[in-house]
Amino acid sequence: MSRIGRAPIPVPPKVQVSWSDGNLVTVKGPKGELSYQIDPVLSLKLEDGTLSVSRPSDSKEHKAKHGLYRTLVNNMVVGVTNGYTKQLEIHGVGYRAAKVGENLVIQVGYSHPVEVQPPQGISLTVDGVDPATKATKVSVSGIDKQLVGEVAANIRRIRKPEPYKGKGIRYTGEAIRRKAGKAGKSRRQKEIGTQS
After folding, report:
1. Least enclosed by CB within 10 Å: which of 60, 98, 132, 174?
2. Owning domain of residue 110
């Protein structure tokens, strides 16, 4: 993790980074504002449009924290600049999603539609149906990478893809391990069955 920790974080001109004595880092940018408490043992330095994170020693614990918190701060900078998007696909006959206000209403084979209410800072959109795969596409967008991933995982959990027909909710590009279904009786077995 220390190689990751040593890499400088480029800060775009429109982004402002500030931190308190207790290392509460606040990042403001065109898309919004994020704050995160990083470990007080690490020190931050902003110079010539690059932010660097440094550790006090080469102990295993400090090396691990160095890489982790540098990545978290970098994710905040990228989030307020470009934002994050996770795309999901809903596969299955009659499986679909629709936007109702800010909420997402999903029908995936249950006796009732499932309504997903996005947390603050997250937007859900239905991108239509892919003509090749006949799958409904759903996008989860926001500036907080962790929250975007969590909301996308919760939507996928509503109906995980099953291994026989591949029906369910999956990430775009996710490979589903398929299983062969039950083999039907062979002709010879049917003949034996009728003779007995």
Report:
1. 132
2. 84-171
CB 87 within 8 A of CB 139: yes
For the chain, the distance separating the N- and C-terminal CA atoms, rounded to the nearest angstrom, is 69
What confidence tens digit (pLDDT) does each residue in 106-153 have?
999 999 999 999 999 999 999 989 888 889 999 999 999 999 999 999
Cβ atoms < 10 Å from Cβ of 123: 15
130, 137 contact by CB (below 8 A)? yes
Measured in degrees and rounded to the nearest 5, phi and psi for residue 87 equal -110, 140
Residue 51 lies in a domain: yes
Dump pLDDT digits (tens) for 170-187: 999 888 888 888 876 655
Report yes or no on 148 lying in a domain: yes
| Residue 89 and residue 75 share a domain | no
In a domain, 59, yes or no: yes
Last residue of a domain, one of 81, 101, 119: 81
